[in-house]
Design goal:
By secondary structure, the protein is mainly α. The chain has 7 helices and 2 strands; from the N terminus they run αααβαααβα. It is globular and about 45 Å long.
Length: 177
């Protein structure tokens, strides 16, 4: 089947993808920080919760996690433009679970005074850097390429970014008066 015959949905901008990732990461980080008392249990709980939220829920919720739902995006299979299967989501989110847990561990320990802890953020940074230099249409990050997925915009969601932008504009108008 020729790709030109299937209309492709609009891609989600990288800034919105990072914001959706941040929403999901903050929820999982908060729950992991409550349960864990050392770095090993933190990473373990983070990865388990991440897989639960970003694989199981996404599979059952038409390709949307909490962050993607809040910002009107969903994950699609790159080839068939449908919700990816459990295997594709597991490959994709396994990479993000590891890099995200290391990044959250590094951010959590910033007050320890050790600047080397910032190196834990590098794998996540490199993962998203691949999307910045991607010349293809969908700016696939490393985890997208591993899982053969794309992130596209959708009409299904809460439109948090639009509502926040409207709120900021209203505040600016109020201050000008």
């Amino acid at each position: 089947m020729n790709d030109d015959l299937v209309p492709l949905p609009p891609k989600a901008p990288l800034s919105r993808r990072v914001a959706a990732f941040s929403i999901d990461a903050a929820v999982v980080w908060f729950l992991s920080a409550i349960v864990s008392n050392n770095w090993f249990t933190f990473v373990l709980f983070f990865m388990v919760l991440w897989i639960a939220i970003r694989v199981v829920i996404v599979y059952k919720n038409q390709g949307q996690s909490l962050g993607r739902w809040a910002l009107d995006m969903k994950v699609l299979d790159n080839r068939y433009q449908r919700t990816p299967g459990i295997l594709e989501l597991s490959k994709r989110e396994g990479v993000l679970a590891l890099t995200g847990s290391l990044a959250m561990l590094g951010i959590s320990n910033l007050t320890s005074g050790n600047a080397a802890i910032l190196l834990l953020i590098m794998p996540l940074f490199l993962d998203f850097t691949v999307a910045l230099v991607d010349i293809k249409r969908y700016q696939q990050a490393f985890h997208d390429r591993i899982g053969k997925t794309i992130v596209v915009g959708t009409m299904r969601g809460y439109s948090l970014d639009i509502k926040l932008r409207w709120l900021v504009d209203e505040a600016k108008r109020y201050v000008r008066k």
